[in-house]
Amino acid sequence: MRHELLLIAITVILLIVEIFLPDDRKRKIILPSIILMTIVTILGFFPGSTGILFGGMYKTTALTVMFKNILNIGVLIVFIQSVDWLKKPENNNKIGEYFLLMLSTLIGMNYMISAGDFLMFYLGLELATIPIAALAAFERFKEHSAEAGVKLIFISALSSGILLYGLSMIYGTIGTVYFEEVSTAVTGSPLQVLAFIFFFAGMAFKISLVPFHLWTADVYEGAPVNVTSYLSVISKGAAAFIFTIILFTVFNKIAVLWSDVIYIITILTITLGNLFALRQQNLKRFLAFSSIAQAGFILLGIIGQSQLGMTTVIYFILVYIFSNLAAFGVVAIISNRTGKETINDYDGLYRTNPNLSLVMMLALFSLAGIPPLAGFFGKFFLFAAAAKQGYYILVLIALINTIIALYYYLLVIKAMLLNNSDRPIAYFKSDGYTRLGLLLCVAGIIVIGFASSIYEAVNKLSFGIY
Amino acid sequence: MSILTLFIIIPVLTVIGILLSKNHMQVKWTAVVGMSLQLISAITLIFLFLAERRAGNTAEILFAQDNVWYQTLNIHFYIGVDGISVAMIGLTALVIFAGIFASWDIRDLPREFFTSLILLGTGVFGFFISLDLFTMFLFYELAVIPMYLLIGIWGSGPRHYSAMKLTLMLMGGSAFILLGVLGLYLNSNAGGGPLTFDLIKISKESIPMEMQRFLFPFLFVGFGVLGALFPFHTWSPDGHASAPTAVSMLHAGVLMKLGGYGCYRVAVFLLPDAAHELGWIFLILATIGVIYGALGAIWQKDLKYINAYSSVSHCALVLFAILMFNKTAMNGAIMQMISHGIMTALFFALIGMIYGRTHTRYINEMGGLMKVMPFLAVAYVIGGLASLGLPGFSGFVAEMTVFVGAFQHSDTFHRVATIIVASSIVVTAVYILRVVGILLLGKIRNDDYEKITDAKWFDRMSVVALILGITLIGMAPLWLSDMINGGLVPIMQKLLSITPMIH
Q: What is the H or E stretch that residue A364 is in?
């Protein structure tokens, strides 16, 4: 419970500070926010108590604590990376809102992760989604941004409705919404299967699996880059985590049913995500589709079931957070400073901004799964988990897709390093916050793979989840 | 700590040194110092290895070092060498050493160039010393990726296209390998115990036959892509032609050997039953590859394309010899890898130097170069003669051994294949002598060429080092073939247990 309490505490503190700051000094809130978030992140790592609250509604286990820590780190990096953008004059009077909304979604995710029944889970999910819609529409004077906000709120309302309908059917057939009681009572009767399908579809919207992905690209493109990176990394990671846990614990008994569904969805998600990414010129859309494909890889771990599957999913999410945040960080700073967002704009970037290009290259190579970067380990272990269940053909299809993915990642690298341009993006000096944020990401990309102890730690905590 | 760790540490330190260097002279000299140290350690390793063997140490793997990396998945950083890997390490160290000197006049982004080049080298060294399939695969991909930047940034001609084609085809191959490696891992505990990536342990397990049949094509084709297995060789001519000199050298000289080595060490060694059953398919492909490559070389007018196609032909010969499954032919296969590695590196180095002076690679536009650059011309003739298998050079030893071994099979299929492949020697002679005739002899066709200067000191360093290698193996092949034979013992035992026909 400590994570949630700490987050609520700093949210309240920031709210009060925000109110008392005069209008022309709103920027002063940036540094305290980041410092408080850093403190919360560090405090999260101290060993604490685990247990059950409210009669089983709320569970704190070592695994959820670890995942909350991962989310804290991710959000901290997002905070640091957004500073450059927040300092723009047009954002001057809503800096406080940005941090408050972000923190409330984070609290929502914490509720969702720790949920012990479907009601708590749903509550957390809503709290984690609705503020993001406000964030997506943050640059409200821009048409695209407003459009993204509206689309996101509609689609999340729709998917929540579907999800809730599924949950009501579960309650109708079993008479309880507690995870543990549901898991023993699930029999796979037709109504329960229908309930599961509704639940699955609702979650698939949140994680943007094909064919429930159609909202992703528009929202990602319209929202401010830092919000996009939050949406595609933190929010998606948390949803994928709880989705895996619910599949493994609650719907464990009907695994035969859902593994077939996931088999097909995996192929669709990876393949279509990749094929659409091939055609994108705008880097935000490009990363949106590539992140759809990456979500498909997470499914490989889910279909792998067992402890290995759980471990590889969490490990991959961790790797994915660092790699994708690095890529988005570079896109964000370039977009803020120059307004350029397409791949062609990046022509010859290495000659003018070598460090940013290197970070981008490392991030993309990590996303493509090239050794010795963390992405390689993440992907390899996911493949191992799926192959262990005998899904060799599925692994082969996923592997062929990694080659397609490599092609489009190389297109960006080609633009930065190989192409020459008459009018490249001019040299600019990025601020200290951005550099710190990118440095953290790069350190993560390099260290997570080599330090096997991180994997072992995840593995130890995943014990007994399946 | 085993001496083998040096082969990873030295390149990594060199890369760090290069990144810290201030100007491009410092970059180059850091690279030279690093790779000289690497060459010295490789030579030391060869002597140490021979001394151990002479002292009667018959262990399968020497200088082994085993560190646990990922405990739950049983991934180890397990390194060690047998005679074959020692030979390959020697080859790699020599070619990289020569490659650094051959790229002495890189002007554009030298720091990035040498970093990528040495990273590539790290991958190759790591691959040859790894005995754990996971790390082996890791180093394999590490060796392939820098090629994209090396060809794409510093290449010539349609470099963007070639770089992309090469990278995607090779990574496609590596996707196949990954599947094969996972299959091996998940079937590595037939005799009980935990799953393992340990190559030596897996070689002692018997993997179920249907699994072998499923995995063998993936592994053989996967490595075969890099070993220029017909029809997956198409990346090779384009890639070689577009790559800068040192990269062509390393690529044809060393990187393509990863393919042959992987086919031998992983596909055939770990899945002998399937190799024996399905080998004929790949034998036909390899036979076609040898002839196709040689004929392809005849039609070409661009020096680099000629050499690229001849590499396809020679590398196919390696696969051909491996698939003969007998000791003599396999020995020949390894010898051919070493011999071709040095020889083709010499060719590409010379082509780079000639191009740097004449600014064309089309043989029709050149002529009489013997008169203006005698040193390079003589070196080219030596390389050519070695390539067509003249006694006294390494090419002869290798090809002779391959054909003697291949002819030990008495059935029609193998005999016919051998005869077809042997006839490629004639074709090789045609394209080598044709180039020597047009390029080096005759009149000087372009007045500008009168002013051409001969090799500079760094050119000579590179050329002399490689020629020494060729003649050393050509004159005194026995120590090398003994060393390789020692390494072949385990695989021969496995193959003998399948069919007594093989000797």
A: helix A354-368
pTM here is 0.91
The kind and range of the H/E element at A52 are strand A51-53
Give B-chain residues touching A452 at CB under 8 angstroms: 69-71, 75
CB atoms within 10 A of CB B492: 16
In whole angstroms, what is the distance from residue B367 CA to residue B445 CA? Answer: 6
Handedness of CA A215, A221, A226, A229 (dihedral sign): positive
Interchain pair B142, A381: CB under 8 A: no
Residue B501 has a pLDDT of 56
- Angle (deg, nearest 10), helices A30-44 and A2-20: 170
Compute the mean pLDDT over every residue in chain B, rounded to the nearest whole number. 85
pLDDT along chain A (466 residues), means of 10: 87 88 81 88 83 82 88 92 86 85 92 89 90 86 84 89 91 87 85 89 88 86 88 90 88 84 90 89 88 89 84 90 92 87 86 89 91 90 89 91 91 87 80 88 90 84 67
d(CA B497, CA B82): 21
Q: Is the pLDDT of residue B455 over 80?
A: no
- Give the residue extent of every domain in chain A: 2-461
Question: Exposure of B313 by Cβ count < 10 A (0-12 exposed, 13-18 middle, 19+ buried)?
Answer: buried
pLDDT at A464: 60
Q: A–B: how many Cβ contacts below 8 A? A: 77
Start-to-end CA span in chain A (Å): 23
Q: What is the total residue count of chain B?
A: 503
* pLDDT of B503 strictly over 50: no
**Cα-to-chain-centroid distance, residue A57:** 25
Asked if residue B381 lies in contact with residue B248, where contact means CB atoms within 8 angstroms, the answer is no
Contact B71 A456 (CB under 8 A): yes
Cis, peptide link before residue A372, omega less than 30° from 0: yes
| C-alpha pair distances (Å), A228 with each of A216, A430, B39, B187 | 10, 20, 50, 43
ipTM of the complex: 0.90
Rounded Cα–Cα distance for residues B267 and B252 (Å): 21
Q: Report how far apart, in Å, the C-alpha atoms of B47 and of each of B54, B91, B470, B480 are.
A: 10, 14, 18, 11
For chain B, say whether A463 makes contact (Cβ under 8 Å): no
How far apart are alpha carbons A388 and B365 in whole angstroms? 59
Residue A109, pLDDT score? 92
Distances (CA, A) of B297 to B110, B244, B431, B440: 32, 20, 7, 18
Q: Are B110 and B153 in contact (CB under 8 A)?
A: no
Pair of tokens at residue A115: 């949920």
End-to-end CA distance of chain B: 38
Mutate to test the interface with A, among B8, B76, B138, B174 (most CBs of A within 10 A): B138
Q: B179 vs A396: CB contact, 8 Å cut-off?
A: yes
Cis geometry, peptide bond prior to residue A371 (ω within 30 degrees of 0): no
Helix B110-129 to helix B83-102 angle (10° resolution) is 170
